[in-house]
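Hello forum,

I keep getting stuck at the same step: I have a sequence, I want structure tokens, and every attempt I make locally crashes halfway through. Rather than fight my setup again tonight, could one of you with a working pipeline run this one for me? It's a single chain of 95 residues.
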Amino acid sequence: MTLEQLAKEHGVRRSDGVTPCVLPPNVTATAIDGGKALLKLTRRAVESADESQCIIKLFGNHSISTASFAMYTFSAAVLVQALVLISFSSVADYG
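Reply #2:
Ran it on my machine without issues. Output:
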């Protein structure tokens, strides 16, 4: 959950690729386009789930959803752990 939240803080909306998923705490509704902020928030709530999905950009042009980012990170960690375990098991056996 924490990794997904960190990815979401650095992510943008899939619909436009510019709007941040999470606004910084010091930004208020008046700081964002004045009265148009409420209209943006209303429009965002009406959008479909696919368009309001948060993505992050990896390695240039590749984008991935924040939920998938957490899953891929855990998978990579398990792969590294498996490789390390296999590599060092002979050291334990033959010391």
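The radius of gyration is 20 Å. If your local run keeps crashing, start a new thread with the error log.
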